[in-house]
Amino acid sequence: MEAMDVDESGPSQQLALIRLVRTLDEPGSLSSPEKIFKLCDHLTRAPHTRLHGVEESILRWLLKQMSGDTDSAEHVRRYAFTWKVLGLVFPKIPAQALGRSLAYLRFVSILNKTLAEITNREDRANDNQPRRRKKRSADCPPPLEELRTCYGWLGTTFGVFEALAILLEQATAESEDVTPEQRVGAEHIKSLFSSSGDETRDITARLLLLCDDSLSVPGSLIDTQQSWIEISTNVWNLRLRNKDDSFEFAKHIYERASLILAKLEDEPAVLPAHQTRSVCYDIWARHTRRLLSTYFIRPARQRFSSDKNIDMPKLALEIAKQDVVASTTVMWNLAATTPRNASDPRSKIEHNAWVEDIFQAVVNVLHSLADQKKNDVLCRLLDSALRTQSIPDTQTLRTLYQKNALHGDEIDWKLLSKILACDPDVFLNAEDSTVMFDNITRVSNGDTETKDEVVSDVVRPLQDAFSNARDLAGFITHWYRSLCTAESVEKSIWFDLKIREHLATIIQKSLSSSQLLRLLEELESTANNKAGLLVVLDGICSGLSDESMIADVKSKISSMMDRKWEDIYPDILALRWRVISCLASWETSDKCNHIWKKVKSDLKPVLKKSPLEAAETFEAFSCCYKLCLSNHIGGKYEEDITKLVSTTLGRIMSAVNTEGDIQVLQPYLDLVFNSLPRLAEQPRQEDNDLADQIVKLFLRMSYQIPSLPAEQCRGYVQPLIHSYDVADEEPMVDALMTPLLDALDSSDNQCGWTQPHSLNIVSLLLEFPVECWTRGRRKRIMSSWKKQKSVISSYVAKDSNYALAVLRLLAKLMQQVTFYEGMEFADLANICSGVTTGDTTILGLTEKFVHSTISQILTNSNELTQSYLLTASQDVKNIQLGESATAFPQIILLKGLSAAISDYKSSNGSLERIGLDPGVFQQKLAKLIEQALSAFSLEASESSVPPLTEETLRILSVVLDAAEIIDRDQASTTDIELPGDTLDRLERAGRIILPKNAALAWKLKSFLMRQSADRYTAESFAAMLDEADHGVEEELLHGFVDAYVQGKGQSVRDQLLEVLMDRETLFRHSIGPLMAARRLLELYQGPNVEDKLAGTQGGLDLAQVHEHFTSHLCHATFLTHFKQISEIMLFLLDKHANAMTQYNIDATLTSVVEVCSTSGPGIHRPAKAPGEIFTALFKLVALIIKRHRLRLSGRSHLLLAALRALLTVLLADPTTISSLSRARHPLYPPWLISRLQPRHGDRFARLLTLICEPSAAAVARSHSRGSGSALDSAIDVAKRAAGQYMYLVVEMYVKLQLEGEVTRDMRRALEVGIFSVLDITTEGGRRVLNESLDASGCAVFKGLFAEYRKFGKWKGV
What we know:
Blueprint lengths: L12 H10 L9 H14 L7 H14 L4 H8 L1 H10 L5 H10 L2 H12 L2 H5 L18 H4 L4 H19 L9 H15 L2 H19 L12 H10 L7 H21 L1 H4 L8 H29 L3 H9 L4 H13 L8 H21 L5 H18 L5 H12 E2 L2 E2 L1 H10 L7 H12 L6 H21 L3 H14 L11 H14 L2 H13 L4 H13 L4 H15 L8 H17 L2 H21 L5 H16 L7 H18 L3 H6 L1 H9 L14 H15 L6 H12 L2 H4 L2 H15 L13 H10 L7 H13 L1 H8 L3 H14 L11 H9 L6 H20 L3 H15 L6 H25 L10 H23 L8 H19 L11 H17 L1 H14 L6 H8 L8 H12 L4 H13 L9 H12 L5 H5 L8 H11 L6 H17 L6 H14 L13 H19 L8 H16 L7 H6 L13 H15 L3 H4 L14 H10 L3 H13 L4 H17 L2 H9 L3 H18 L5
Antiparallel strand pairs: 1-2
């Protein structure tokens, strides 16, 4: 014990470690695990040095202790700290020496033995009993018995995977900065696993078994487990290759990998309901899928292509019988998604043969399962087949139907629906279709869930199948026979409305007129079931809209309906009226009269006596409407039919008393309000009863049912209000609106505006279109409001919803010219006096009302205008400055008044012709603003915690908006004057407001800056910008900058920009300085006259400004910073193109490459960063190509580098790399955390077309001597120049397709640009491109060029 007690408090931890290592082989009381724990502690704290002798000694001692079959050796192997020590030792030993040592000490055999021990499930099964754990110190290793338990193996597993990850990292010496010694060492480490194929195979299988077991551990996977599947794959990839690898994989690896993937894809089986799925699950699923695809499915597919053999998949399925469901599901999912060329018929045929054989093999393995479980698995397989469009052939599906879907009298409808969705042709032969219809007929109507499932998933796809086979008549015949054989048609599944609705959608495109006529004749000849005939005829008639087809069959349908309809269930008899309604809409007026004479004796009793709730009554009412419409206007029987409609309307109105009645009678209300207004226009006065009935029902629905909410009321009557038939008929509009207007007028000494139903009335009036509001109606309602405004104001103060509705109505009316009786300025004051600050919508409507009224007064000069404005001027002069609470309505009033006058002056000139001085209003408004701001500043400074409530802040916002109106008026001489102490208090208040309401705080800062910009220096102004966070609106910050630079010369603005650029905080957390810099550049107009007279030399060097921002683009840490910097660069390159130098162009392209490299910016908000960063880079490159094309001459290498960088980022898939691998070996920029979308591919294709198909403006230059032939256009010269190097982009595109999967949508998006490159590539360039590619690349390019020859190449006329 004393030999192991090393002085840990000494200055040299390395010396302590050396002393500890020397005592490892000395006998003592410490066990090997205790020594290992001390080693781990010292190694963790020891510094890293060039020397590695100590680490090699530790490695040799550890592996020596791990060798053997004794319990002590097993204890060391199972101890998690053993593997942690190995993980600490591996990186400190050079790879070459490490590989030799591990090979000599048989590390792989020890690893395999360790994995065999911890994957032995018998040890865990023998330790199911809970035991009391003894308390021990942290440095006391657990005993071997505890390490063998179901808890101990997991710690060993973590240690093994961590050590393997570190070891395999040293075997991946592929980067350019690796020395030759490191490459040799990496090969030594790889040879450890390639020397024995059996051991590598067993290690991989056991690693996967550990991954599978970890999924059964309670709790979710953690981030440190992300690379486990990847490590297992890397170990298998290091094996000694031979031709039987795929069979070895099938025997030993497939079963475990398939179980893992099945568990990962079946999320509820892995996670409890209360836990969320971590990213690790998705990474494991992706890596496992890639492992199975690369080493099993693809070799099996290649073997099948050569000899049509699937022995390898069959062997894997035979071995993986432990979980048949998982193995079969995974194999089918992977086999069905194998790549194939959908445009190549031969590839499609081969793929169909492949999936057919695999499906047969999978189905054969399922025979051991119970029937129901087998059918569930088959449903999952067929779902996958539908999703991947890998459908088994018809005969296979027919066999599944006969052997699995049918179980005597019981039918598995779910499996049947899947088979039908895959291939409906299975049921098109006579025998199967007859059996199918008989089985459907037996479905009970009482089981609603099964019935709906059968109708949606079986019957409707069956209709589509017969339609696609050009035999819809066959389906209708089977349907009719099934209705005839049903015991009760109304209870049969074939009576379902969805069947008839779907038939209506497909009948015209599936049957010709002659086919439909023959079908009707066949039905007529066998029409022994009247109820079934009505059901079929309803489905047929509902789908007919083609006039020629209707003309051919309507007489036959009419003759079929010409019979007695007795002893039929009422719900089915209702279909008679639906068919007659169709006939009435098809036939001429004379034919409709004939129909009316036949049916009126049956129709009248139904409409007069049958319950309104009955379906037959409603269909009869709808039929009556169609017959009335056919006689409108002036038909022979129009009066009789209209009276019947009015009678029914009377029944409806008498039945509408409660909300429950309305819900029952909803179909009637929809028909009345949507369709009946067409019949309201009557030539004779005595026929206007119908219009009166509609209006009465409208008014009853409007406000005469107290329990009906306003929103529901509007929903019922909106169709009538917005109907074109109503809007075009002024009498009808008047009939609807007049009662509502009358209800608002005073009656019986009561105010109609304040009755319980008044909110409903106002809401309905708001629904009427603007065209319905004539001048008379507008004047009437405004006069009514004026008479009762005092009562209304008191009622408005109690109900905010009512206040909102009234204000909306008044604002809507005053948008049109409305000079009502007694119109005066006091009306506006009355409206504003009732305004509260609790609702911003009410504030906005009030300002809109004031603005609209004053604008109408100013723009429509009459005798009222001058007197109105003079009265307004006098009233404003009489306003006394009092309490701030009473001043708020006055500010609202004067704000709207001043805004309207300012707008009028900007468009129409002065107000001198009226004799009005607009300064009166602005001066009074300025005084009120001064008073309000002074009161606010005092209130805010009275205590350390000011009472800045939401209401106070809302008042302040209105006051600041009013102040902005005064400042915005350039012709105004009115100034807002505040003392210095008030400005100081407001400035302090602004700092308090900033965390609560940033927008209001910056509005206040802008106001203070306009008041006294001279109080701030450039440095203090820049310091204030640091307070702007990322959520501040750009317009507010621009207004703040404008307020500071207003009236200042360009030299002061340039000085401010230089101050901002020199500050270190420009590119830090705050976005304010960047926004301000951009605004200053937008305001830049060059040196002004005053600066030149003052002798100011030089000026702002925009090229240096661009260089400054370009150098910081790659160092942005926030997405908003990156976007602002890129937009500044874009602005300078576009608006100040002449000031840019060649260096600016080169630097921009270089910065694009740098951003797309592994040293690119790490954006803190990564959710939307990839797409927005790529878009910003696209804009920069596109602008250079369009505006600075001539400066790219001789710079093709820079342009190519930028295009290659963008293309690499575009096609990269960072989700395939674990977070551990991404941190250790980054392949992509840090901001690229998700794949880019096809829309980004469209943008890159646009870059290629800009280069290969330049516009004349982009390449225009003045011809000089020696510049080329005068006959050569600049566009042709540019195309020839681009053709010399753009083929390299195609080369990059082909190589990137070989490195990773490129989605079909992305390829389609890039096709336009790639084809454009091929258009300008010469034959020599294509030859060079072909020679630069390997065999795989040549194959990809061959397919690409074939697509180009077929679709992309212009061949002329």
